[in-house]
Design a protein that fits this description.
By secondary structure, the protein is mainly alpha-helical. The chain has seven helices and three strands; from the N terminus they run αααααααβββ. The protein has a three-stranded antiparallel sheet with strand order 1-2-3, with no helix packed on it. The N and C termini lie far apart (about 80 Å).
Amino acid sequence: LINGNSGIERLSINRSLQDNSLLYRLEIYKASLKMIKEHFVLGTGLNTMKYYINYYSETITAPVFHAHNLVLNIFGETGFVGLIIFGIILITLLKNLYYIYKLEDDFYTDIAISGFLGFTSIFIHGFIDAAIIAPQFLFFAVYIYSFISNIKHTEISLNKSSEPCSSNRKNSGGELYGTRDTCYKKSYYRA
């Protein structure tokens, strides 16, 4: 082991009952809940946890930059409105992952599973730390979300069948075809 027994010591139940970092983290959770109660709708503002959390606890004296919990951090800084937006983003991601997973291509299935596992690991870690705030995790999360959304929208546009834009142009020397935004004329003239 690289660090000796330090990792095993942190997992010990006897040690965790005496560990000040666990008790301090619980105090941060309590202070975050008080802050949420007072700033329920809009929160305190992005990246303002470090300025507000000391007012909600006498125990917290050192600077605390986040709530050590992803949901508490988002709810505390952005309020109920931000939590709803976060939920919508998360649900959209899950729907896109499911759509890509259902495509009949092993490559896309692997991407969907990898994306799901990546976000799941960030979310699980988010219960004990607000990892999404760290730039490397945020970059990873934004990259996965953008990549998955791009794959879904590309697949949808590739799989669209050519439908006539207008059904009332039957004898106009060709039919108009296209997508929602643009149409093009496909000519059937023969020489």
